[in-house]
Specification:
Blueprint lengths: L4 E4 L2 E2 L5 H12 L5 E8 L4 E8 L1 H18 L15 E10 L3 H19 L3 E5 L10 H4 L3 H8 L21 E5 L4 E4 L3 E4 L9 H12 L8 E3 L4 H12 L10 H5 L2 H7 L6 H5 L8 H24 L8 H36 L6 H42 L5 H28 L4 H34 L1
Parallel strand pairs: 5-7, 6-7
Antiparallel strand pairs: 1-4, 1-5, 2-4, 2-5, 3-4, 8-9, 8-10
Helix pairs in contact: 1-2, 2-3, 11-12, 11-13, 11-14, 12-13, 13-14, 13-15, 14-15
């Protein structure tokens, strides 16, 4: 079964300040397992569209982190732009990519909406497949009148009451969260969102626009697609323009090479991780080992949960263990991905240090590249540490309530998660030190201190719970 993957395309109400956009993107990338695929900013619209993919739980955490950072940096009381908007984080859709259904993305969206409201105090509206009522399925209906109208009506008109959160608008505005199939944002200042592209293929849009422009004595100069789009949409467009009615994506060589059986046959035989770790090369190193340990903790907890959910004796905790199982089975592949991400981040630091120096331009470019690489080298283990802390929390739950026959496995998972956390924090701190007085270094150190203190408390509680149940027989 393929790893479940979700695409998330949050829209933020700032397209003019690169430093703000970078800070929001960094907040999203810090979550382990997240890959940012695209950033599209438009100064006239004063809007940025980010596209990232991740396992479901990581996607939720990343969307929450980006929303929180946007709320800190974007004040909607001073916002202006051509694009309709109601909030700093204006809209957050989840799109199923593989191994996950639209219905599951709906549940993910509703969980995110609740957390944005509860943790950030921002009003949240649900839309598209996640909508709580039919009239809110359409995004434009939710944003009717934009933030100016919503500010005046949210507390006075029942139909404008949010699904979650307070009935008042603060500096961060409101946020719309939902789940939907892939959407193609196609614009040529005839701005279109193709919300269901198979019955309305991309190729027919420019053709229709050209005909109308010609009727008015104008012509189309160029087109633009905002964000990412499915490959199938381009295959449809090519087939339409070239009149190849029988063209199939299976005729694309790149597609055939990506098929699991073909990819497996062509993939080079890799040395095992432990063998790679034992070589004289500096990567993979301690950060990768931390992620590997966290993945092992997640795997142990998955076993504990599976040995609990079908036992009649533990029927009272079945739902809790099913939820635990779902979460650790999301964290496990994220931690496995972080093994390679940490090694790649370290290699990027080494590459930045080897950049040519001499002229002022070269020195500046090298310094900027080294800072960016070092930030990433701290962000990856920080994400691992956060996930390891969560695994330690889950190990505590398992030690307290899971199948008593698995108590040593739950305890082992907790100690493995703690080892992962401590090892990851070492890597966070060493990279923070190398950043010197950089403000981000202080933020990394502060977060590391918080996780260190939190893990000590969790570990002590987990040990007491495990010992108590072992003693009770």
């Amino acid at each position: 079964m393929p790893q479940p993957l979700v695409e998330c395309v949050p829209n933020f109400s700032d397209g003019r300040r690169p430093e703000v956009i970078a800070a929001i993107r960094d907040a999203i990338r810090t979550v382990a397992g997240v890959v940012v695929l695209d950033t599209h900013s438009d100064a006239d619209h004063n809007r940025t569209v980010l596209t990232f993919v991740a396992p479901p739980e990581a996607a939720l955490e990343a969307a929450l982190a980006g929303t929180k950072r946007a709320a800190e940096l974007i004040d909607m009381t001073h916002h202006s732009g051509a694009h309709p908007r109601i909030g700093a984080t204006d809209v957050v859709p989840f799109i199923p990519l593989q191994g996950i259904t639209l219905a599951e993305c709906v549940q993910l969206a509703r969980r995110l909406g609740r957390r944005i409201a509860d943790e950030l105090g921002i009003p949240v509206y649900l839309y598209e497949a996640a909508a709580s009522r039919p009239e809110r399925q359409n995004l434009e209906a939710v944003r009717e009148g934009q933030i100016e109208a919503l500010r005046a009506e949210i507390a006075t008109r029942p139909e404008r009451a949010p699904d979650f959160g307070p009935a008042h608008i603060g500096p961060a505005g409101a946020t719309v969260v939902g789940a939907r199939p892939p959407l193609i944002a196609y614009k040529a200042q005839v701005s279109l969102n193709l919300t269901d592209y198979p019955p309305t293929p991309m190729a027919r849009v420019p053709a229709a626009v050209r005909r109308e422009a010609a009727r008015l004595g104008a012509r189309v100069m160029r087109s633009e697609v905002v964000g990412l789009l499915p490959q199938a949409a381009l295959v449809d467009a090519a087939a339409w323009y070239m009149q190849i009615d029988s063209l199939s994506s299976q005729q694309l060589i790149e597609r055939r090479l990506q098929e699991p059986e073909t990819a497996a046959r062509l993939a080079p035989k890799e040395t095992g991780f432990l063998d790679a770790l034992a070589t004289s090369t500096p990567a993979p190193g301690g950060g990768s080992a931390a992620a590997y340990a966290a993945a092992m903790a997640a795997a142990l907890l998955a076993m504990v949960a599976r040995l609990t959910v079908d036992r009649k004796k533990y029927a009272a905790v079945r739902e809790e263990m099913l939820s635990l199982l779902a979460e650790v089975e999301t964290l496990r592949p994220a931690m496995q991905s972080a093994v390679n991400e940490d090694a790649a981040a370290f290699e990027a630091v080494m590459a930045a240090r080897r950049l040519p120096k001499g002229s002022s331009e070269q020195n500046l470019a090298a310094a900027q590249a080294l800072r960016a690489a070092t930030l990433r080298a701290a962000e990856v283990p920080l994400g691992v540490a956060r996930s390891a802390a969560r695994l330690l929390e889950l190990a505590l739950s398992a030690a307290e309530r899971a199948n008593a026959a698995t108590i040593t496995d739950a305890g082992s998972a907790g100690h493995m998660a703690n080892a992962a956390l401590q090892a990851a924090l070492l890597n966070v701190r060493v990279n923070a030190l190398s950043l010197g007085d950089d403000p981000q270094a202080h933020a990394f150190s502060s977060q590391a201190d918080h996780l260190q203190a939190r893990s000590a408390d969790l570990l002590a509680k987990m040990q007491r719970a495990a010992q108590a149940r072992m003693s009770a027989g």
